[in-house]
Amino acid sequence: MKITILGCGGSFGSPLAWNRHGNIDLNNKRNFRTRSSILVEEQNNCILIDTSPDLRQQLYDAKCTNIDAVLYTHEHSDHTSGLPDMRAMSLINQKIIPAYMPEEMILKMETFYKYIFKGEKDYLPFMKIKKIEDSFSFQGTNIETFKHNHGSIDVQTYKFGKFAYSTDLKKFYNNDINKLKNLDLWIVGLLREDPHPAHAGFDQVMEFVNYIKPKKTVFTHMTALLDENLLKEKCPNNVIPGYDGMIIDL
Question: Is the pTM of this model over 0.85?
Answer without folding.
Answer: yes
